[in-house]
From TrEMBL:
This is DUF2079 domain-containing protein. It comes from the Bacteria. It comes from Atlanticothrix silvestris CENA357. Keywords: Membrane, Transmembrane, Transmembrane helix. Pfam families: DUF2079 (PF09852). The keyword Transmembrane applies. The chain crosses the membrane at residues 75-96, 127-144, 151-176, 188-209, 241-263, 298-321, 327-345. InterPro entries: STSV1_Orf64 (IPR018650). The keyword NADP does not apply.
Amino acid sequence: MISISALILFGCSSLRHTLFQSGVFDLGIYDQVVYLMSQGQSPISSFLGFHHMGNHAAWAVYPLALLYKIYPSPYWLLAVQAVALTLGALPTWYLARQAGLKESQAVTTSAVYLLYPLIFNVNLFEFHPEVMAVPVLLGVVLAARLGKVGWFCLGTIFILGCKAALSLTVAAMGFWLLVFEKRRVCGAIALIAGITWFLIASQVIIPLFSNDEVAAVSRYSYLGDSVLEIAKNLLLKPQLVLGRIFSLDTLGYLALLIAPLIWGLAPRQLTPLVSAIPALALNILSDKQAQRDLIHQYSLPILPFLILAVIASLSAGKGWFKNRRTIILWALLAFMVLGKYSYFWSRYLRSIDTWQATRQAIAQIQTKGAVLTTHSIAPHLTHRPFVQFTDDLSGSPPDFKQFEYILLNTRHPDGTRNPEFANKLVNQLKNNDYFKMTYQHDDVYLFVNNSSIK
């Protein structure tokens, strides 16, 4: 079941990328830095303008460079993501069995995990290192319940390395293990490690490598301009957030999260959700609407603990449904309603008319020179130290001379959403003495710096 699911997810994300529907944020960013790591170069993202460790302090990405040593390709990232997301079904099965569920119930719970719409949807949305933490979050809970402290520590360390914000989830998980599960050693380790790494990552590592505050701080500007100021205002000025917590927007978000699993949630078995409180709070309080859907990665840290709550409910003989067929039918219905599989015959085919021309233009880029291109083409050209994507520039025009290649699709300018701007850029390049147009077909243009042409 896991193998088939992983192949389906990998096939879907690979097809999306092949159709030029992936983008800079975030497949392009991670493909570039992992490629640079594999080449022994400093992993400085030319899209972000700073070192990889300044972006979420995600040191768990470094081992992925070993895969790029075999053959550099963004499809490695998509494969890792598909495997990680589906692999969560394995500890789910073990946790269900450990909780006393029958074999058939454990398999059903694993199937419910795999059919949760967020798994499929996040797999389509670029690449994010926190996907690697999902099966490990379930794994460390299993290790704690089995008294495997060593494995618990190793798993916790890896989770912390996937994304700095996960340290809050780890700390909350530690509190839950300590107070509700009575796993004092593992609980204390997670609580201390989570708080410590959060402070180190947010106050030392990220500012050191990015020369700025944690990037997500801007989404909570009404609470303060820094991580510590936001934390202080949450404690001292709770009235600032009450309106967001008790709102229709929050109610709709909670309904999305719970709907696929509502049949298996019982009030007295909800204590695992204590661990999900930090991620839930970050999403509810954010100005970014994308943090409150089942499409983007922000709700991933919540899913393992929803599954644990379902397992606890089934173990206690609670829940609306107990029949295996009914449970699977509900999970399938939720997937059909909330899964984004329809993108493959709608939005993902919007630029199919320029697909062949874009591939041909990319094939003519032979060197590792600097490239300026569009948001959707950029992830296909990130195996180089410097690549940027066009956007709707409101300031001074870009310095074209710093690029060896400029590849534009004026029919589908994607990131700019502004064909007039894209056409204006092409006309500027046609009249630029530094560049020569070497390819033109179906409104796809490739310009090469004259200094590169022998």
